[in-house]
Amino acid sequence: TEPAPGVDYRFVRVAGSARYASGPYAVFGGAALLHLLAADGVAERFSEVGMSGVELGAGVARRVDRRFEIRFGANYRRFNYAITSQPTDLYRATGAVDQLFGVTLGVGFVH
């Protein structure tokens, strides 16, 4: 079995987000659609590949003074492939998924 290829994604991100603050605390979240321009490492293995992606994130914040806050967040990004293998393709597949999970801890400037 051959190992899965490394992938280099290039995409346009269209996103929206919201934030609600009460006193020194805040919650925030957002979502994005990812229009993939290229997925080097997977897409070139097949003749016909449709690609799409989505991103979700949420977090909490605590203001530490008038201008700064500490933020903790989590995010999820998913890339989908709809693959139509051709008889001349070296590899055979009908689809694939790449999922990434992450967490962040940071300091934010509040205005």
What does it look like?
It is a single chain. By secondary structure, the chain is mainly beta. It is 0% helix and 71% strand. It is built from no helices and 5 strands. The chain has strands spanning 8-22, 25-40, 48-63, 68-84, 95-109. A 5-stranded antiparallel sheet has the order 1-2-3-4-5, with no helix packed on it. Strand 2 (25-40) and strand 3 form a beta hairpin. The chain is elongated, with a radius of gyration of 19 Å. The termini are far apart.
First-last Cα distance: 54 Å
**Sheet with the most strands, sense and barrel status:** 5 strands, antiparallel
Q: Can you give the mean pLDDT?
A: 90
Beta strands, count: 5
Q: pLDDT under 50 segments (min length 5)?
A: none
Portion of residues within helices: under 10%
Strands of the largest sheet, in order across it?
Answer: 1-2-3-4-5
Number of H/I helices: 0
Taking all Cα atoms into account, the compactness measure Rg is 19 Å
Structural class: mainly beta
Q: Percent of residues in beta strands?
A: over 45%
Question: What is the string of SSEs from the N terminus onward?
Answer: EEEEE
Which outline best applies?
elongated
Give the quaternary arrangement of the chains: single chain
